[in-house]
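Q: I'm writing up a methods section and want to include an example of the input and output format. Could you take the sequence below and give the corresponding predicted structure tokens, formatted cleanly so I can copy it straight into the document?
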Amino acid sequence: MAQSSSWVPPRSPHGLIQEDLWPNEWRILVACLMLNLTTRKQVDGVIHEFFRRWPDPGSLEAADLNELEELIKPLGMWRKRAQTLLRFNREYVSGGWSTARDLHGCGKYADDCWRIFCLGDWRSVQPQDHALNKYHSFLLRESEQSSPVNTRPEN
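A: Here is the clean output for your methods example:
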């Protein structure tokens, strides 16, 4: 899927992992899959090594299943999660999808993140995730203050 060429999600004080992974759509969605039924702290313990070993969809396609399972074991449900990641990746690469929700393993949370961070379609999203709600509220406050919500401040 093509990302919005003009949308640049602003940095928030909430430090969502998607903010760090932007503009890489695939990495944002992988992070969403990793965050399902686990904590940010657990994901932080594996995600950097995951992307070191498998930096893109092509490298994940060639991943050894046992190596993948071993790495993501701390997230829980590692066998199911590994299969989900691999099937998601195949579907992502195939390109036969319109929204993140069309991809295996991607539900409302992943679709909301994709719409906010990749499309810039944050006004039509009503997140249910607590961290994503904080980011969404941040975007609303920024837009109400007439600050541009499409620029990224320097770090």
